[in-house]
Amino acid sequence: MNPFGRTLYPLGLSAWLGLFGWRACAVSRAAKTLSREADLLEGESAALDRGARRLAQLAHESAAQARESEFLLGLPNILPEEKGYLRTQKAISDEVAVLRAKVGRRLKGALYLVVDAKANKLFVKKGLKLLWQADVSVGRGGVLADARSGRKWEFVTPRGEFRVIGKGLNPRWRKPDWAYVEAGEPVPPPEDPSRLVEGELGAYVLNLGDGYLIHGTRSTELLGRPASHGCVRVGAEDLDKLYQTVPNGARVFIFE
To answer: 66: pLDDT confidence band, cut at 50, 70 and 90?
Structure first.
């Protein structure tokens, strides 16, 4: 072998081994760095996981507190104003039973009507027994003012106890002044024949006095909602049953 080659070969091998060792050290350092970064990432991931669980716990606690606040705010609506006064369901049940007995003795099995003005429902009852019920339309509310005369009309159904003071078959509606004012028409004299309108009140009426009636309606799609000018509107079938079964003098209780 060439003496020069014998000298060059060991030098090259040494250089290669040195370079390999340097690269191995570099790879080792990089591996340690990656290991440390992996440990850091794992720690941050664990911290994020703990944070997410804490946020979920806080959200749950917040929802519970919101429900508790809603309950506490609603207490004045279900409890008496007097502090510390709570009635159990048993006590309330007993009180209702006593009141029902008193009402039953007062009504003595008579037939009467109850109008729930808030729910727009009419109930036909005999004593404490419900016979049947119907959707109705009570006063829609609001005020109409006549700019010329200064008169005002409020379209509400009165609350309280009334009686059926009369019943009528095929009644004619005597159009009141407010109907002309509402339509923007001239108001005729009180006895003008043009005021009498056929078929507007349905086949029957039950007169409650002071101009308030239980009568039929052409706007049956509005039953169950406040839509009248103060009277109680009823569908044709229910109106027929009322006329046939409710006697003159029967009590009518209107409440909200």
So the answer is: low
Q: pLDDT digit string (tens) for 75-120?
A: 445 444 454 545 555 666 666 566 666 666 666 678 999 999 999 9
Q: Give the closest residue to 212 by CA, choosing from 113, 65, 64.
A: 113
Q: What CA–CA distances, in Å, run from 18 to 4, 27, 204?
A: 21, 14, 117
Rounded Cα distance between 112 and 126, Å, is 6
Q: In this predicted model, which residue has the larger pLDDT, 27 or 128?
A: 128
Task: Collect contacts of 86-93 with beta carbons under 8 A, ≥24 apart.
Answer: none
Coil, strand or helix at 148: coil
Report the DSSP pairing between strands 121-126 and 129-137.
antiparallel
Determine contact, residues 113/122, Cβ cutoff 8 Å: yes
